[in-house]
Specification:
Blueprint (H helix, E strand, L loop, with lengths): L11 E4 L14 H12 L3 E4 L6 H10 L5 E3 L4 E4 L4 E5 L4 H14 L3 E5 L2 E5 L14 E4 L2 H4 L6 E5 L1 H11 L5 E7 L2 E7 L5 H12 L6 E5 L5 H6 L2 E4 L5 H4 L4 E2 L7 H17 L1
Parallel strand pairs: 1-2, 1-12, 7-8, 12-13, 13-14
Antiparallel strand pairs: 3-4, 4-5, 6-7, 6-9, 9-11, 10-11
Helix pairs in contact: 1-9
């Protein structure tokens, strides 16, 4: 008689992009693609949950044959790209956003805003990472002038900008997500209600999927609440020590098929054992 699996089967896999599904050169390995395809063929849902704007997760979702909405902007925006419909938007309140952007411009700090599904930075400002040259980015003479509605989120880029912003606005009732990429520091400022965990929980509720049947994989500080909420949360081997130590399971780094290894371990192996 077949033995029962020791834990509930996985119905949904939630994947972060940068540092997780994407290799350092922003490609997706053959093994990762194969694991995702096998999961989809087995009736398992796969959703991307990322700090990026909508462009990259939509492109990757189409490339992989995913048909679920994408959770973007650290959980502040959920987009059904098939229907071209915004399912949820939790922006930074405009009065707070105005104060922060006006301060940044006045003090010459590196700042960007995500508004109407586009990133904006000041004309002539420093380009800190390659994706800032992509089609989703635009320049403006003044961010304060175009900020006529609440932005999805605000990014302060570089150590000085992050430090000055924190000192000036750290007591505001907002969410501050600090990330470190090698020697580069940035902070994403969001509405307090916006998070990857909250957005994923709401999406799973729509499908009637309980947390214990979710596998979530990520590498960043902003992934930790999501990883701890999921039935199985897995940190990438390339994650910061504090991220790896915050969850029970760690997989290989993103340049060594860490996503595929986690899917094979927690989805395929239990299913084969119980068959």
């Amino acid at each position: 008689m077949p033995s029962k699996p020791s834990s509930p089967p996985i119905d949904l896999i939630a994947l972060d992009l940068d540092g997780t599904l994407l290799a350092p050169d922003e490609t997706i390995s053959v093994r990762n693609r194969t694991a995702i395809k096998e999961a989809l063929n087995g009736g398992i849902r796969v959703v991307l949950v990322t700090g990026r704007g909508v462009d990259t997760p939509i492109r990757v979702s189409k490339e992989l044959g995913l048909n679920l909405p994408v959770i973007c902007c650290h959980g502040a925006l959920t987009k059904d790209f098939g229907a071209n419909k915004t399912l949820e938007s939790i922006p930074v309140p405009l009065p707070y956003a105005k104060r922060m952007v006006e301060f940044a411009e006045r003090e010459g700090l590196a700042v960007a805003i995500y508004l109407e599904e586009r990133f904006y930075r000041l004309q002539g400002s420093e380009v800190f990472m390659e994706d800032m040259r992509g089609p989703g980015w635009h320049e403006a003479p003044s961010l304060a002038e175009i900020l006529t509605e609440a932005p999805t989120f605000i990014r302060f880029l570089g150590e000085e900008s992050v430090r000055r912003m924190q000192r000036e606005f750290g007591d505001l009732p907002l969410s501050f997500r600090y990330e470190t990429w090698r020697d580069f520091v940035e902070c994403a400022v969001l509405n307090r209600d916006a998070s990857k965990k909250n957005a994923l929980a709401r999406l799973c509720a729509d499908f009637g999927i309980p947390a214990e049947r979710v596998l979530a994989i990520g590498d960043s500080r902003n992934d930790v609440p999501m990883l701890r909420w999921a039935g199985i949360g897995v940190a990438m081997g390339n994650a910061l020590p504090e991220v790896r130590e915050s969850v029970r399971h760690v997989t290989a780094p993103n340049d060594r098929d860490g996503v595929a290894l986690a899917i094979e371990r927690f989805v395929f192996a239990p299913a084969r054992k119980s068959a």
